[in-house]
Amino acid sequence: MNLALWIATGLLAAVSLTGGITKTFIPRERLAAIKGGEWTGHASVGFIKTIGVLELLAAVGLILPAVLNIAPFMVPVTAVCWVLLMVGAVIIHVRLDQFKLVMVNLGYVALAAFIAWGRFGPEPFSG
């Protein structure tokens, strides 16, 4: 179970890091032109950058607390925050009739919920 949780956490951190870098450093106009990024054309630059920074923080919060054994309880807390962020993403993609992206985001919700459940429940970090 611990290995499965680490794999899930690594995957979610990679997704979060990629999305965070993209939203933080790529101009809105380029994001809006990418398939799946159309929503950015309707959002302010500040909102997009804020989401990007939150995703970067999530990538850090999913990995570093456990690896460094400094406040490892932050891993499942970060996973819960990721669920909330992805619920917002699902709402946006539903409004834009982007069914495939809704399903992708629901997959991320499931992954984050698994991490939160596992680390709050049967496989917490000791220490």
TrEMBL record:
* Entry membrane topology: Multi-pass membrane protein
Keywords of the record = Membrane, Transmembrane, Transmembrane helix
Where, by residue number, does the polypeptide cross the bilayer?
A: 6-26, 47-67, 73-94, 101-120
Localization, per the record, is: Membrane
Task: Mention any one GO cellular component term assigned to this protein in its UniProt record.
Answer: membrane
Which InterPro entries would you find in this protein's record? DoxX
Q: What is its main location?
A: membrane
What is the protein's given name? Answer: DoxX-like family protein
What is the species listed in this Swiss-Prot or TrEMBL entry?
Micromonospora echinaurantiaca
